[in-house]
Every structure is written in C-alpha cells, then in structure tokens.
Specification:
Layout: E1 7-11, H1 19-29, E2 33-37, H2 40-45, H3 48-55, E3 58-59, H4 67-81, E4 84-89, H5 95-98, H6 108-131, E5 135-145, H7 159-181, E6 184-190, H8 204-214, H9 222-233, E7 244-247, H10 258-267
Parallel strand pairs: 1-2, 1-4, 2-3, 4-5, 5-6, 6-7
Length: about 270
C-alpha cells in the first residue's frame, strides 16, 4: 500500500494492453485513488469504463491540445481530491506513422499535430497544474518515452523528435516545478511494448524481437513498467527528478549481444560463439 491516501490523474488508458491501464491497476492495488482521462475519440474506441469500474474511478474526457479541456479536468480533479499527488502522461499519436508516410516525405500539418499531442501537451499539462496550484509538495509527474529520442529507428518517424521534446520539457519544467513546489518530473524510457499503439508502428515485430535479443534481461513488460511508474509516484523516490529513466532490460547500454552476434553470423554463413 505504498500509495495509500494518494490521489492523481492517469492519462492514456485505452485498453488492457496499454501501460497506462496497467499503471491504473497497480496504483489502485497500492491504495491510490485517481481520475482516468483520454481524448473523447479514444474513450469511444476503448474500454476505459471497464477499468473505471474495476478501480472505482471517475472518467473525464480531455483533449490535451485544448486548454479549456485541461482546465476542466484539473478543476474537477482538485474539487474531488484537493491537491494531487501524481499525474501520468501516457499520450502519443502520429498520423504520419499511421498512414505509413515515409520520414523524408512527411506531412508537416500531421507533424505539427504529432508534436502538439505527443509532446507540447506535456508542457501544457504542467503549466495548467502549476497555474492552478494543483500539485502537492513532493508530488510526482511521469511521462512515457522511448529511446528513439536519442537513436535512429527509421519507422518511428517524427515520433522520435516528439519524444526528444517531451524529455526536454521534463528537464526544463522539472527544474522550475522543483524550485517552486518540490514537484518532481521524470520520463521513463520503456522497452518496445506490445500495446495497441506500439504495434501500429511499421516493422514492430522485428523491432520488438531485436530489442529482446539485445537486452540482457529481455524486454520489460507493460506490467513491470507500471510497477516502476508506481514507485515514482511513491515517497520512496522523493529526490528523483528531471531524469530520463531507462526501463528496458539493459538495451540502452548494450553495444551488441551474443544473441545478435549469433544471428548475424548465421546470416553471413559463418560460425560464431558468445
């Protein structure tokens, strides 16, 4: 019960494959209360009411590109709970990726929308929380990211730049929020995960298998990522802020693995050993 008595908002739970869904389940099990939110269209497509019933939570629609929606959400959340202890930002969308538009030919209107939804929304959310003094001292804000912010993954398209911007906002806003309110802001760089959104990226199966073979511990699951998020919501991580935290089984610091060397050796028709 490490979150007993803590209140918050969880953005982005779409279905039972999503990391935000798992975070809600584990946060509930650890004693937290929260509001669930997603874009109105996502609420219609998903099964969030099932999760709300399971966790005894209220669902409030919110389009993160609209200040009036964020104001409404945070006003309702603070009216219900008072100041908040935690917020999860688990939001990302690219029409260029969905429509399989090559990176060198991307549609710039789509790109602007990607940045607005996937990254600028994080700054907009924190700005609204700060203006409304909605976070308690030592509160925790967490966003989900991916290592494509730092390395090239060709089919990830402009989502890579979105994640780089998201991580920069966590550092910059984390400084100001820490100084003014002792609120901590972090991002978690998760392994490729078999979510509905993740599996929509071109070549995802190969992508997933490669990371799994590269990582000494293998890919981290959505469930384990959720547990890590919950630890960052708790008082056990009070002095962790402005960090991009890798939760990827060691992928981020592995140059090459024995499994990959073996695969390359077989493909080249030569023998290899670990």
């Amino acid at each position: 019960m490490i979150l007993k008595g803590k209140k918050g908002i969880i953005f982005g739970a779409l279905d039972n494959k999503s990391i935000a869904w798992k975070v809600a389940e584990f946060a509930h099990a650890e004693g937290a209360e929260f509001i669930l939110t997603n874009a109105p269209i996502a609420l219609r497509m998903g099964a969030i009411n099932e999760l709300a019933e399971k966790t005894n939570s209220e669902v409030i629609p919110c389009d993160v590109t609209l200040e009036e929606d964020l104001n409404n959400l945070i006003e309702k959340a603070t009216a219900k709970f008072g100041q908040l202890d935690f917020v999860l930002h688990s939001i990302g969308m690219s029409l260029n990726v969905r429509k399989k538009i090559p990176y060198t030919e991307i549609n710039y209107d789509f790109m602007h929308k990607t940045f607005d939804i996937s990254a600028i929304s994080f700054h907009r959310l924190m700005q609204t929380l700060m203006k409304k003094d909605a976070m308690k001292e030592w509160g925790s804000i967490v966003a989900l990211t991916y290592i494509a912010s730092q390395r090239v993954f060709p089919d990830y398209s402009e989502m890579a730049e979105s994640k780089a911007l998201l991580e920069s906002f966590a550092r910059s806003f984390g400084y100001h929020y820490g100084k003014s309110k002792k609120v901590r802001v972090n991002t978690i760089s998760q392994s490729p995960t078999m979510t509905t959104a993740g599996s929509g990226v071109g070549g995802f199966d190969a992508f997933y298998t490669y990371a799994d073979k590269m990582s000494p511990l293998g890919n981290a699951s959505a469930e384990d990522c959720a547990k890590y998020v919950v630890s960052l919501f708790s008082d056990y991580t009070r002095y962790v802020t402005m960090q991009n935290l890798f939760h990827d089984g060691g992928f981020s610091f592995t140059g090459i693995s024995g499994d990959i060397m073996e695969l390359v050796g077989r493909a080249g028709g030569t023998e290899s050993s670990n």
